[in-house]
Design a protein that fits this description.
Elements (H helix, E strand, L loop, with lengths): L6 E7 L11 E7 L5 H9 L17 E6 L3 E5 L10 H18 L2 E9 L6 H12 L4 E6 L6 H15 L6 E3 L8 H12 L4 H4 L4
Bound molecules: guanosine-5'-triphosphate (GTP) and magnesium ion.
């Protein structure tokens, strides 16, 4: 299992600009505003202060880049579907996402977050289609799993599969409160980056 030992903020972007360390592999986190993207990053990195979170949607408005283990970039993408922003700002969002995602060239995996409690909406479906069209390696992450019972979760995941047209093995339940699903997320990252298993790679006493 890979572990995140080191995580630091690199920069905020508004698109496909150059930045320090660009060229390293990237893992991105996308999803509707308030779904828990920044919280997931903090939980993965064991640092509650790394990415700003907020109960008010629309907290992350820029593309935030984090350097992990001096080896890859974790990308906190701005949330979509925040109703209160102006039409002009929604256009900005679309331009920024397109510019970044199409220009990246280093994107190895995208975690597409949806709230486990709700049926994915039109914008979630659109995002899922965009990811498939781009032929990106992805995982759908059903967030806030702590809010549902086990039985409820199973039904919710089935609904997510149907709505987004994804297979059950492409969906993981996650909670940034309990940490459930964290190991599976790390496994996906490890696989996407082709990293060696730390327990079996040896080299340390
Ligand atoms: N119960 C519960 N609450 C969560 C979980 N993840 C996030 N939250 C809460 O949901 C709210 C939004 O979390 P953020 O991580 O800021 O969401 P975001 O997707 O980064 O939002 P934007 O930056 O606005 O796009 C915060 O109040 C979090 O505490 C979770 O797994 N369980
Ligand atoms: Mg955020």
């Amino acid at each position: 299992m890979m572990r995140i030992k080191k995580a630091s903020f690199v920069t905020s972007l508004t698109g496909n600009q150059n930045f320090p360390g660009r060229g390293l592999d990237q893992i991105a986190v996308a999803g509707k505003s308030n779904v828990g993207k920044s919280s997931l990053i903090n939980r993965l990195c064991n640092n509650q202060k790394l990415a700003r979170t907020s109960s008010e949607p629309g907290k992350t408005r820029l593309i935030n880049v984090f350097l992990i283990n001096d080896s890859f970039h974790l990308i906190d993408l701005p949330g979509y579907g925040y109703a209160k922003v102006s039409h002009a700002m929604q256009e900005d969002w679309g331009r920024m996402m397109n510019d970044f995602l199409e220009g990246s060239g280093q994107l190895r995996h995208i975690f597409h977050l949806v709230d486990i409690r709700h049926e994915p909406g039109a914008q979630d479906v659109q995002m899922a289609q965009w990811i498939k069209t781009a032929e990106l390696d992805y995982t759908v992450v059903a967030t806030k799993a702590d809010k549902l019972s086990r039985a409820q979760r199973q039904r919710a995941v089935q609904l997510i599969c149907r709505t987004l047209a994804v297979q059950p093995w492409e969906v993981l339940s996650f909670s940034s409160v309990t940490g459930e699903g964290k190991e599976q997320l790390l496994e996906r990252i490890q696989k996407a980056l082709g990293l060696e298993d730390e327990e079996t790679s040896g080299g340390r006493p």
